[in-house]
Amino acid sequence: MLSLQVRAGTEVVAVAFPPWWRAERALTAAAAANASIVRMTAIPALLVVRPDRDGGLSRLYEAGALLTMDPQAIAGCFKADDDQGVGNDLRRR
User: Do 66 and 41 meet the contact criterion of CB atoms below 8 Å apart?
Assistant: First the structure.
């Protein structure tokens, strides 16, 4: 069964910033929290990131995150095919 909750020790999380934020603002907030961007989604304020190991989730919330969750829970939000040619990377394996 899939859970939205981020499991302890998870290296990659989906992070939701306010829905009215544009992609640039969400990317800037994630970078300010020292999180590495793993991928973008079809929703500009929803990113998959690798938070810093030392308090990274807390810093994401301080930067404006509303929610963090297991990235598998948002698989439907990934772009089917983006301009970088990596949209279906996990589904083709």
Answer: no
Find out whether 66 and 18 touch, Cβ atoms under 8 Å.
yes
Is residue 39 over pLDDT 80? yes
d(C-alpha 9, C-alpha 51), whole Å: 11
pTM over 0.85: no
* Beta strands, E only, 6-90: 13-16, 36-40, 46-50, 67-69
Coil, helix or strand for 83?
coil
Quick count: other Cβ atoms within 10 Å of Cβ 23? 15
Phi, psi for 73 (deg, rounded to 5): -70, -15
